[in-house]
Amino acid sequence: MGFNCGIVGLPNVGKSTLFNALTNTAAAEAANYPFCTIEPNTGRVSVPDPRLARLGALNHSVREIPTYLEFVDIAGLVRGASKGEGLGNQFLGHIREVSAIIHVLRCFDGGDVTHVEGDVDPVRDAEVVETELMLADLDSLERRYDQTAKRAKGADAEARRQEPVMARVLATLRDGKPARTVEVSGEEQPIFRALQLITAKPVLYACNVEEESAATGNAHSARVAEMAAAQGQGCVVISAAIEAEVAMLDTDEEKAEFLETLGLAETGLTRIIREGYALLDLITFFTSGPKESRAWTVWKGATAPNAAGEIHSDFEKGFIRAETIGYDDFIEFDGEQGAKDAGKMRLEGKDYIVRDGDIMLFRFNV
Q: Which has fewest Cβ within 10 Å: 107, 130, 233, 247?
């Protein structure tokens, strides 16, 4: 399944440089002027997971297939974007289509790149973009609310369910708070999601720092981390410049050596994926055998039939059971047969909640 993240931010904060590095492509032009990215560019990258290689080695798999993450590079927003400034309406529409938002913030001083706001203040920049997104949501919801409220006064049962949710969200947005801060019950979740509000999406703040601060962060990124913690959102420190250099290296060994010289244990991509998974409550399960070992992504809380459906819809429809081995047991007992001999293979039914790292073989009948 994977998930897609829209890379947003003010112009000239490093969005396209980061996108190019993450997707190892030059599809998005990185230039020192606003609106150099007019159409959203999409890049698909494999999710690094060392567990996949170990499974492939144990099973002598012919090939290993990772799960994927999709990045969408969305042109820079400016003040007034919600009113159409800059090309704002077009850009806001693109943001509505993604699962989560990676908000790139400039957290370095100096350099030749012009800051659209005149000086470096990442917290202010975050508030500028968030305000524009809230205004866009407010405009969208206000136009729909009146009609829903009118139908709710009549005999429209669906409108009666929608109206109180919409009213709470409107009140929150008018109070200057994003939609994701609204408390929504389990029964109301489908209604809330159907509103397709930008500020309902989880946010990962990516602090773009100078190379020297990539390992430790700096004063700017510390302020962003404090803001993110207060909001309950994610935060990661990266250097788009370093990511661009890493992307140019040919082998994993070269990349590891280069990162080590900078005091880094992993790339920014790896950190973004890990934080993104946590933000969206995603987990990975595996299928593994001689032909292939493969990683799959599901939502935390997914059942065994849900996981089977990620492979093929027929697997979910005709689900019988799932032969399941935990990753640690699979490794400890040297593969499937050893885990079975040790009594670590479980037969799980339709109510089983998939755990991160499960190796699963589905039995089904259609």
A: 247
